[in-house]
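Review session, final week

We close the course with one last complete record, chosen because it touches almost every idea we covered. It is JmjC domain-containing protein, a protein from Haptolina brevifila with 152 residues. Go through it on your own first, then we will talk.
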Amino acid sequence: TSPLHYDEYENLLAQVRGRKELILFPPEDLPRLHYRPRPKGVLRYEWPDRFTREPIGEEAAATRVVFAGSVNLTHPTASEREDLSRCSPMRCTLQPGETLYLPAYWHHEVYSHAAHVPSGSRLVATDDTLSSLNVAVNFWFRNETQPPLAYP
Protein backbone atom coordinates (compact mmCIF):
# COMPACT_ATOMS: atom_id res chain seq x y z
CA THR A 1 0.00 0.00 0.00
CA SER A 2 1.22 3.49 -0.74
CA PRO A 3 -0.47 6.71 0.34
CA LEU A 4 -1.65 9.39 -2.05
CA HIS A 5 1.24 10.78 -4.11
CA TYR A 6 2.32 11.62 -7.64
CA ASP A 7 5.39 10.77 -9.70
CA GLU A 8 7.20 13.15 -12.04
CA TYR A 9 7.78 10.32 -14.50
CA GLU A 10 5.58 8.32 -16.84
CA ASN A 11 4.94 4.88 -15.39
CA LEU A 12 3.94 1.43 -16.58
CA LEU A 13 2.75 -0.66 -13.64
CA ALA A 14 2.70 -4.38 -14.48
CA GLN A 15 0.94 -6.68 -12.03
CA VAL A 16 2.54 -10.13 -11.73
CA ARG A 17 0.91 -11.74 -8.68
CA GLY A 18 -1.91 -10.65 -6.38
CA ARG A 19 -3.86 -7.55 -7.31
CA LYS A 20 -3.67 -3.82 -6.82
CA GLU A 21 -6.48 -1.34 -6.38
CA LEU A 22 -5.70 2.24 -7.34
CA ILE A 23 -7.55 5.47 -6.79
CA LEU A 24 -6.42 7.96 -9.44
CA PHE A 25 -6.85 11.74 -9.61
CA PRO A 26 -5.98 13.96 -12.60
CA PRO A 27 -3.29 16.62 -12.11
CA GLU A 28 -5.89 19.39 -11.99
CA ASP A 29 -7.15 18.04 -8.63
CA LEU A 30 -3.89 19.03 -6.87
CA PRO A 31 -5.30 22.05 -4.96
CA ARG A 32 -7.95 19.85 -3.29
CA LEU A 33 -5.67 16.95 -2.25
CA HIS A 34 -3.97 18.62 0.74
CA TYR A 35 -0.32 18.00 -0.16
CA ARG A 36 2.22 18.61 2.62
CA PRO A 37 6.01 18.21 2.80
CA ARG A 38 7.14 15.12 4.70
CA PRO A 39 10.61 13.86 5.64
CA LYS A 40 11.94 11.46 3.02
CA GLY A 41 13.14 8.22 4.57
CA VAL A 42 15.85 5.92 3.31
CA LEU A 43 15.54 2.14 3.32
CA ARG A 44 18.77 0.25 2.65
CA TYR A 45 18.99 -3.31 1.38
CA GLU A 46 21.85 -5.53 2.51
CA TRP A 47 22.40 -8.79 0.66
CA PRO A 48 20.96 -11.33 1.03
CA ASP A 49 17.93 -10.59 3.20
CA ARG A 50 18.25 -7.53 5.40
CA PHE A 51 16.58 -4.12 5.21
CA THR A 52 17.48 -1.25 7.51
CA ARG A 53 15.91 2.19 7.89
CA GLU A 54 18.21 5.16 8.08
CA PRO A 55 17.10 7.37 10.98
CA ILE A 56 15.71 10.76 9.98
CA GLY A 57 17.45 13.46 11.99
CA GLU A 58 16.40 17.11 12.21
CA GLU A 59 18.76 18.19 9.44
CA ALA A 60 17.63 15.43 7.09
CA ALA A 61 13.98 16.15 7.89
CA ALA A 62 14.50 19.76 6.80
CA THR A 63 16.46 19.02 3.63
CA ARG A 64 15.15 15.64 2.40
CA VAL A 65 11.45 16.09 1.82
CA VAL A 66 8.85 14.50 -0.37
CA PHE A 67 5.43 15.96 -1.08
CA ALA A 68 2.48 13.66 -0.52
CA GLY A 69 -1.23 14.05 0.01
CA SER A 70 -2.25 14.13 3.64
CA VAL A 71 -5.86 13.15 2.94
CA ASN A 72 -6.93 9.77 4.31
CA LEU A 73 -9.11 8.70 1.38
CA THR A 74 -10.91 6.04 3.41
CA HIS A 75 -11.64 8.35 6.39
CA PRO A 76 -11.49 12.00 5.26
CA THR A 77 -12.31 14.86 7.61
CA ALA A 78 -15.36 17.03 6.88
CA SER A 79 -13.29 19.69 5.08
CA GLU A 80 -11.37 17.03 3.13
CA ARG A 81 -14.67 15.39 2.15
CA GLU A 82 -15.87 18.70 0.76
CA ASP A 83 -12.67 19.14 -1.28
CA LEU A 84 -12.78 15.52 -2.47
CA SER A 85 -16.37 15.99 -3.65
CA ARG A 86 -14.98 18.47 -6.21
CA CYS A 87 -12.35 16.02 -7.49
CA SER A 88 -12.61 13.57 -10.38
CA PRO A 89 -11.29 10.26 -9.00
CA MET A 90 -11.13 7.07 -11.01
CA ARG A 91 -10.70 3.55 -9.67
CA CYS A 92 -8.76 0.75 -11.26
CA THR A 93 -8.05 -2.84 -10.23
CA LEU A 94 -5.01 -4.57 -11.71
CA GLN A 95 -5.01 -8.36 -11.94
CA PRO A 96 -1.98 -10.54 -12.76
CA GLY A 97 -0.94 -10.05 -16.38
CA GLU A 98 -2.44 -6.56 -16.63
CA THR A 99 -0.47 -3.32 -17.07
CA LEU A 100 -1.56 0.23 -16.31
CA TYR A 101 -0.09 3.30 -17.99
CA LEU A 102 0.04 6.07 -15.40
CA PRO A 103 0.90 9.50 -16.84
CA ALA A 104 3.28 11.81 -14.99
CA TYR A 105 1.70 14.00 -12.30
CA TRP A 106 -1.40 11.84 -11.89
CA HIS A 107 -2.10 11.39 -8.18
CA HIS A 108 -2.62 7.83 -7.00
CA GLU A 109 -3.13 5.81 -3.86
CA VAL A 110 -2.41 2.10 -4.12
CA TYR A 111 -3.77 -0.84 -2.11
CA SER A 112 -1.96 -4.16 -2.60
CA HIS A 113 -3.71 -7.48 -2.03
CA ALA A 114 -1.69 -10.66 -1.78
CA ALA A 115 -2.26 -13.85 -3.71
CA HIS A 116 -2.06 -16.89 -1.49
CA VAL A 117 0.75 -19.30 -2.39
CA PRO A 118 -0.87 -22.74 -2.80
CA SER A 119 0.46 -25.64 -0.77
CA GLY A 120 2.74 -27.83 -2.84
CA SER A 121 4.08 -24.78 -4.68
CA ARG A 122 7.76 -24.80 -5.60
CA LEU A 123 8.02 -21.46 -3.80
CA VAL A 124 9.22 -22.21 -0.29
CA ALA A 125 8.05 -19.77 2.36
CA THR A 126 10.23 -19.74 5.44
CA ASP A 127 8.16 -17.16 7.28
CA ASP A 128 4.42 -16.50 7.61
CA THR A 129 4.91 -13.09 5.99
CA LEU A 130 6.10 -14.85 2.83
CA SER A 131 3.18 -17.25 2.62
CA SER A 132 1.24 -14.81 0.44
CA LEU A 133 2.64 -12.44 -2.14
CA ASN A 134 1.94 -9.33 -4.18
CA VAL A 135 4.41 -8.77 -7.00
CA ALA A 136 4.39 -5.88 -9.45
CA VAL A 137 7.00 -4.21 -11.64
CA ASN A 138 7.18 -0.47 -12.30
CA PHE A 139 8.80 0.94 -15.43
CA TRP A 140 9.38 4.67 -14.90
CA PHE A 141 10.69 6.79 -17.73
CA ARG A 142 11.46 10.45 -18.22
CA ASN A 143 9.70 12.55 -20.78
CA GLU A 144 9.06 16.19 -21.50
CA THR A 145 5.75 16.33 -19.59
CA GLN A 146 5.44 19.51 -17.56
CA PRO A 147 3.03 19.80 -14.63
CA PRO A 148 -0.18 21.65 -15.58
CA LEU A 149 -0.10 23.57 -12.27
CA ALA A 150 2.56 24.84 -9.89
CA TYR A 151 3.53 21.55 -8.27
CA PRO A 152 5.47 21.40 -5.02
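Two points worth writing down before the exam:
Residues 39 and 65 are 4 Å apart (CA to CA).
The helical segments are 58-63, 78-84.
Good luck, everyone.
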